[in-house]
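Hi R.,

Here's the chain you asked about this morning:
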Amino acid sequence: MSPPRHLIIGGGLAGALLAVLLARRGHRVDVFERRADQRVRGYEGGRSINLALARRGLAVLQDAGLGEAVLQRAVPMRGRQVHPLDGEPSFLPYSRNDAECIWSVHRGRLNHLLLDAAEAAGARVHFHHRLGLVDFDARRAEIIDERDRRVRWIDFDALLGADGAGSALRNAMQGHADLHPEIAPLDHGYKELEIPPLPGGGFRIEREALHIWPRGGYMLIALPNTEGTFTVTLFLPHKGRMPNFEDIETAAQARAFFQQAFPDALALMPAFEEGWIGHPTSSLATLRLRHWHLDHRAVLVGDAAHAMVPFHGQGMNCAFEDVAALDRLLVAHDDRAEAFAAFEAERKPNAEAIQTMALENYVEMRTSVDDAQWRLQRALELCLAERHPGRFVPRYSMVSFTRTPYALAFERGQWQRALLVDATRGIDDLAQVDLATVDARIIAELAPLAAESPEPPL
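And the predicted structure, written out as tokens:
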């Protein structure tokens, strides 16, 4: 029998990595990407340019033999540098273990590396091509060449949708599968800017940090790049409350807003007006589906199945875990429908958990990090992590520095958050915490986390 033919719709991060893994297993793989080959044209912005690579995503890349190459193009971030409106910036480490960090990676460079690996593995990548109609009964897909509108019908064994939140495959599946999509738009949008390197080279602000300017109802963040730049992202309400994107109509109004809300950040951006005009304002939403697959014929991964807001930096990491799980389950099950069903059963609860945590983390980033009570709870959290290693693990650490399933991290995090709130109620100093009582509760009620494989080499 000839190997199965998989058509992957979408050549972004998840689609390219899925092509690598399936092609290496001998599957016939064709990837159809609507955009041009950005290895030739260069990366075009609009979507988030910088992404945070966490332990779980790095582990998937390591297993694929690509981790070292990715880390050569990444910058470690060991904590949050918080920039208050008044006062000096302060550094809040993610962990007391300096080896626990997240990595700032450039979306375009990572995509290029994965596309190269996919083609090296034997996958065929077709740019300027999009999915049109699908005849699921005949298992034939209409593929349209965007350059000349030429149409081809291509036979497939399975369609794999890695084409993002606006997935064409998901739209095609809707008349055949009970997807029941629920889209929850966030009333905040984002716009990207850039802090350039110093004139002689080098970083203008702390290199190994995720920078945050929290302002309660909105915020600014900055992630480092290897060449000394920082990708800056403003998250702001679309309309209704002040300030908002709708009321900032000109670059001059934007400068006045930044001068009031982020004066130290503005001073780092000499080409502020050009950046403001040159980058669009984009929207954010959470997508939930009842089902991710259509028997043995189609399945969705990554944002096509579970788009999320970016405030936990886990969209890419979650998608990479999807890809690894789907690859593993296709090997474990002879029946593709069983593999797709097992994939959905395993990954859907985890995706829904990280979607919820991402929404919660937005409030933490824009408000809590500048709150004295939250900082006290954070100090206690780190203290308890040292006193109970492997048992009391901060939720952020479980998500970013371990491969703990998201659903389990969410469940344990809820219990731990309640403990921190109880232990710090009515006090303002860590020395006032009744550690003996807290220790006893942890030992009695919180089981140790399952041991993991060692950290991937850095």
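Residues 454-458 have pLDDT under 50 and may be disordered.

Let me know if you need anything else.
M.
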